[in-house]
Write a structure and sequence with these properties.
about 110 residues; mainly alpha
């Protein structure tokens, strides 16, 4: 067992992920209703970033855009396997909501 699976940390993670899922649901439903695919969504984001980076991220300020719990566990295992002493999380500044674990956007674990 680890802190992601049991105890108070696990409960907080479950609650935060449920909040993230609820906040992002309308955006994802609208995207899926338009017949979108993950590849199309990525292409649209890249195109929008090139046109107006700040505008794009302002538009997503109320979204968590977190990674899945499964991918979060993978990131956790990578950090533990590398015996990371520092972890930098990118994405917290996207909006006014608190950061969640799994983190939005990306996490990079650095050993040292």
């Amino acid at each position: 067992m680890d802190s992601l699976s049991t105890g108070a940390v696990a409960e907080v993670l479950r609650r935060l992920y449920q909040e993230a899922e609820a906040a992002d649901r309308p955006m994802m439903e609208a995207f899926m209703a338009a017949g979108g695919t993950p590849e199309k969504m990525i292409a649209e984001v890249i195109e929008a970033e090139a046109k107006d980076l700040r505008g794009l991220y302002r538009a997503h300020a109320d979204h968590f855009l977190s990674v899945s719990p499964r991918f979060g566990r993978f990131l956790y295992m990578c950090a533990r396997a590398r015996r990371a002493t520092r972890i930098v999380e990118f994405g917290t500044s996207m909006g006014s909501r608190p950061s969640t674990w799994p983190p939005p956007c990306a996490t990079w674990a650095a050993a040292g």
